[in-house]
Design brief:
This protein is of the alpha+beta class. The protein has three domains: 92 residues, Ribosomal Protein S5, domain 2 (2-Layer Sandwich), CATH 3.30.230.10; 34 residues, no CATH class; 136 residues, Up-down Bundle (Butyryl-CoA Dehydrogenase, subunit A, domain 3). Helix content is 62%, strand content 14%. It contains eight helices and six strands; from the N terminus they run E-E-E-H-E-E-H-H-E-H-H-H-H-H. The strands form two sheets. The chain has a four-stranded mixed β-sheet, covered by helices on one side. A two-stranded antiparallel sheet has the order 5-6. The termini are close together.
Length: 288
């Protein structure tokens, strides 16, 4: 089953130590680029989290954000660090003097400055373990979202491949008619000019024209590439790069068919092929 590079998951839990929430989101990228936004006390988790991401995701820009809100006990006092507050006041007075400012800082903003309010240092081990377990849940949900989107993309590709197969059959059916029409036009032109052409020379011209107009080789390669796409969709490993290469090959064969065409119906088929291939190529950019 193929997976999309794009996905989103969010999980949260509330316990004795407070509220934890993980948010994982991913977009397309040429390789795996995992980024973590963690509170300082949870930085110790990053190596293990990066390993977990690498084991399940091979491509994509993945952003993992952890939010933690500590639970404040009933009756808990707010302890202000007087020394830190004095240092902050000295710094603010110096800045005000240099800038000529007269407005006093807002108390709430002062309390929000790091270190002004003392926070109790509790045992972080249970909290870190809880955050790690919650991340595993978020990663599972994230992968389910990617798999669901991947199945939709696979169905999209299958439908376009089936339509391309129909167009390949149309081109093969049309080619003999185009060749016969070309021969008839040549004979009619010679008749209009009053020129009698030797059968051998006419056969030679027909052979040259058939070689120039023949698209059987392109159709065979198109069918082969379409079979490769169908087989790749069934694989479990990442196939995004392989599908991207196959889209280039399909487009090359469609372009060659268009350049060889001297018939309106064959040209229409070639244009329809290129439209379908471009639609597939855009969606393949989302596949891991």
């Amino acid at each position: 089953m193929i997976k999309s590079m794009t996905g989103y998951a969010r999980v949260e839990t509330t316990g004795e130590n407070g509220r934890l929430s993980w948010e994982i989101r991913a977009v397309n990228h040429r390789y795996l680029d995992a980024q973590f936004k963690l509170p300082e006390e949870f930085r110790v988790l990053e190596p293990d989290l990066r390993t977990a991401i690498g084991a399940q995701v091979s491509r994509g820009k993945v952003e993992c954000t952890l939010r933690y809100q500590r639970e404040i006990a009933v009756g808990e006092q707010i302890a202000v660090d007087a020394q830190r507050l004095a240092q902050l006041r000295t710094a603010l007075d110096f800045v005000a003097e240099q800038l000529g400012a007269t407005t006093a800082p807002e108390p709430m903003r002062v309390l929000g400055f790091p270190g002004v309010v003392r926070e109790e240092r509790s045992d972080l081990a249970p909290l870190i373990g809880e955050a790690k377990a919650l991340f595993a849940q978020a990663l599972d949900e994230f992968n389910r979202a990617r798999a669901s989107e991947g199945e939709r993309l696979a169905q999209f590709l299958r439908e376009r491949c089936d339509t391309l197969q129909v167009l390949v059959a149309d081109v093969r059916t049309r080619y003999p008619l185009v060749r016969d029409q070309w021969l008839e036009r040549l004979r009619q032109r010679c008749a209009d000019l009053g020129v009698e052409v030797e059968p051998a020379r006419l056969a030679q011209e027909l052979a040259l024209a058939a070689q120039r107009l023949d698209v059987e080789e392109e159709m065979s390669r198109l069918e082969s590439h379409l079979q490769e796409v169908a087989q790749a969709i069934k694989r479990k490993e990442p196939i995004g790069r392989k599908l991207d290469f196959l889209m280039q090959e399909l487009n090359r064969e469609a372009n060659t068919t268009s350049s060889k065409s001297q018939d309106a119906d064959m040209t229409r088929c070639a244009v329809d092929m290129k439209v379908l291939i471009e639609q597939m190529r855009e969606q393949v950019q989302n596949i891991e």
